[in-house]
């Protein structure tokens, strides 16, 4: 990993769009008798879902970037594209090293103990047996599970499981760490431990992406924030400024002020498009 004195791009997302085809029961009802008859035998028409629409940004080393937005905004899709688990329909994603994706629902073996899962996870990330044994001490300290580390994972609460997953991912000292809602569970002590580890990764010239619904979490733990809505990039800027605007929009939605909320979206999206076009013009 580069030293903390160096700053360089780690992730470049260039005009990325991702479109899915998903089954639609509503389309079955709209069609004629024959399609409805075929639907009884399992046939389903599909509709196009634009999960991301022409999203561009560059992440730098040493940044902690919060990705915020309501459900269905494209946050998790973006992380999967950065991680290389999916490919864009249009555009490109490049990374300076292999990102490590940590999700709350990351698959571990429920019948095995937390310690056995930690060993398996480290080996899967490329640790040699010797290096894995050295990293186990760091994982157990970070996870802070006590004697529960020897119990089967199926006995863990969601908070205990997320702490172990975070500890495994962070032990690899990744240059690019992707976290999908992993800080949303667990007590204050475990969140503080996770935030301290994220800070250490940034100090080692790493980049952290944190997907969350919480503007407050972004303000407390991130240096920068990206706000997505219906697949579009609404705002990309300092964490406090972006999170505040997102919370103001959410407050208006919650209080039925939909015209005000829609105005915020239109203004911020237009501002972002103008800035992107200006940047592209400078490059040309």
Which helices and strands appear, and what pairs or packs with what?
Blueprint: E1 9-23, H1 25-30, H2 33-39, E2 46-60, E3 64-68, H3 75-83, E4 90-95, E5 100-103, H4 114-124, H5 129-143, H6 158-171, E6 176-180, H7 188-203, E7 207-212, H8 215-221, E8 224-229, E9 232-238, H9 239-254, H10 258-283
Parallel strand pairs: 3-7, 3-8, 5-6, 6-7
Antiparallel strand pairs: 1-2, 1-4, 8-9
Q: What does this 3D model show about the protein?
A:
This protein has 284 residues and is an alpha/beta fold. The chain has a domain at 13-96 and 207-283: 3-Layer(aba) Sandwich (Rossmann fold). The protein contains ten helices and nine strands. The protein has helices spanning 25-30, 33-39, 75-83, 114-124, 129-143, 158-171, 188-203, 215-221, 239-254, 258-283; strands at residues 9-23, 46-60, 64-68, 90-95, 100-103, 176-180, 207-212, 224-229, 232-238. A six-stranded mixed beta sheet has the order 5-6-7-3-8-9, with helices on both faces. Helix 4 packs parallel to helix 6 (158-171), helix 6 (158-171) packs parallel to helix 7 and helix 8 runs antiparallel to helix 9 (239-254). It is globular and about 55 Å long. The two termini are 32 Å apart. The mean pLDDT is 83.
Q: What proportion of the residues form beta strands (DSSP E)?
A: 15-25%
Number of strands: 9
User: Helical proportion?
Assistant: 40-55%
Q: Looking at the structure, what is the overall shape?
A: globular
Q: C-alpha Rg, in Å?
A: 21 Å
Could you name the CATH topology of the domain at 13-96 and 207-283?
Answer: Rossmann fold
In the CATH hierarchy, what is the architecture of the domain at 13-96 and 207-283 at level 2?
3-Layer(aba) Sandwich
Question: What structural class do you assign from the helix and strand content?
Answer: alpha/beta
Largest sheet: 6 strands, mixed
CATH class of the domain at 13-96 and 207-283: Alpha Beta
Return residue spans where pLDDT drops below 50 for at least 5 consecutive residues: none
Tally of separate helices: 10
> What is the first-to-last residue Cα distance?
32 Å
